[in-house]
Amino acid sequence: MEEMLQKLADKLGIVTKFSDAGMSKKDYEISEGVIRFIAERLGYKAGNRGEVEKSLADFDKRRWQQTLENIYVVEQGKLHFDAVIPADQAQSFFALQIENKDTGIRSDVTFDVHPTDETYTIGKTVYVKLLVAVTGDLPVGYYNLTFKVGDKSYKSTLAVAPRCCYENQALKDGKIWGYALQLYSLRSERNWGVGDFTDLADFIKVCSHSGADIIGLNPLNVLVHTYPEEASPYCSISRLYLNPIYIDIEAVPEFKPEDKNDINDKITELRNSELIQYGEVYPLKIAVLEKLYGRFMADLHSERQQAFRAYVEAEGEDLHKLALFQTLYDIKSTYIWGGWRAWEDEFQNPYSPAVRKFAEEYADRIRFFKYLQFEADRQFNLASNKVKEYGLKVGLYRDLAVGVGKDSAELWSDYDLFIKDVGAGAPPDAFFPAGQKWCLGAFNPYVLKERCYEPFIKILRANMRSAGALRIDHVMGLMRLYVIPDNGEEGTYMMYNFKDMLNIVAIESYRNQCQIVGESIGNVPEGFLETLAEKNIFALSVLWAERKDAGWGDFNSPSEYPVAAFTSVGTHDMAPLRMWWFGYDIEVMASLGLMSEDDKNGAYHKRELDRWKLLSALDNNGCWPEDNLRKDNYIYGQAYPEGIEEAVHRFAARTASKVFLAQLEDILHVEKLQNLPGTDRDKHPNWRRKLPVSLERLESDIAYIRNINAIRRER
Fold first, then answer.
1. In the predicted model, is pLDDT for residue 271 greater than 70?
2. Across residues 81-88, what is the average pLDDT?
3. Cys bridge to 435: 107, 396, 428, 502, which one at CB 3.0-4.6 A?
């Protein structure tokens, strides 16, 4: 690669070469075209040598053109920041004022100013960089910082982080267990064909009976209103708000029993269907909610109206932009294909006169979408309050998706915050040799810092709300994110300010008393997991990955599992135990053309070996139920070993990890995948599987009873 372009890429944090996480590690060198493309999307022209040289000079000059950066993110005990001033002012009088952003209280602090050897000349002025060290300490939080040089004042934000993230007392005291749950998959005798917030409240009660202390949930964020079949919880239109599909219609205060007289048969049909019929469930719910909204608006002086107005005011512009986007999208999609980026130019700018006029004309419809969020928020709060009522030690363990859909309210309302014309994905690895193109929006790291990380902070807070723990999906994205130009297949990593991002997570973890867990399956940088551990970010561990010899050897013993981890048998992207045993997942992938015939035969051969190794691990650790000991080797899958779920759950519950999460799919003998990564619904019914047993019958189900007893024996 051209030397100057390499320098520019290094300065901008664009990776020019990397190694994948495949079974046979492969090295990649990124083409100059991709580097130039991404550099220009970051605001630095790189089309030829002259442009690259100018961009290098502009980048080097950037820090010297302002006295203070917009934000300094520091740890307690390491309170310092730098300041750029003209060299002839280096002996000026300095003063420092720090004010808490939340309380307005000013802190009296002492500080030292240390000149550095760093200088830079712009025009005829020589600038010097100072290091300002606060000699006292400050509580965790965000502060307005004012630094005075002579008679001039300069302002910034100081974010003070704890040395590590919050740790729940229950995890300090010992080990707990709970469930990994896809909320939409809950089947009940009262819901309308998809799990809802009342089901969640009822499941919390079930947890209290079983001794579980934590419930891991799929992302609950709002999806595309206009196309409900776009059901992936990891591709939302806003990570700030909830999916209205989880509203229990019959629990809405405006609901009357006669509202469902004409649709009872349809509700029963949707409730009994094997798969979730999003294209029917969601419109049915919305149609009734529209009626309830009309009833709600008829009484403008009720206490509920007052609560609604207070909610709308508190949520402010973020809620308004979401509701405005949903209204625009619903109308535009009737005659424009291609999402918001295909709209007329004046409607791509949320602040344009055309959009303001539209908002006035459709004010009532926009208010309806706000009403949906108001009610979803109310019902979610009622459900989450059950955690305290029933005494769960951690409670809800929420899931923060790595990104947001590009055709989303987040991108439409703040497009400059994201790297334009690229989408986040993943490079090739052992599971996906061709890599993955997720088409998710990726923060522009420079704009994010200029905004004092406020958009990221808001998303963290929204998803930590009512949560005792938060899973950060693809946690490597705090350090680097693989981005792919929209018009190509080759991508590369974009580096983020890892230290700042980690410390922001720590601040919000501390302030919200929320345990942090990092999902790190994929291409993990060397030393990355150790850095997370130092910050008290727990790891995720799954039975299928806890193997020796890069997944080919024996299963690790329970004592070999990481302590600071949330452990499970699998994930929503992996085959449930019964499916895994018979190799049905291999057959599904082969039938969809996701693996060759040779790969299929090799996978079956390996699965035979893996079954034997699993049986041996269960034998060696004495995990089989005493009244149902292993009777055969079952090596060729001629039968399913009775009691194997109990044995596997005893094995996993016995691990050293602080938290064990059981999946109801494993307990209830499910033989089908919840999600097959790399496919859409035209090939596989992702995110549509219901559990085979209803909530009302769960606690009397013999498989449930035996497996819960097995877990409780070890935890």
1. yes
2. 97
3. 428
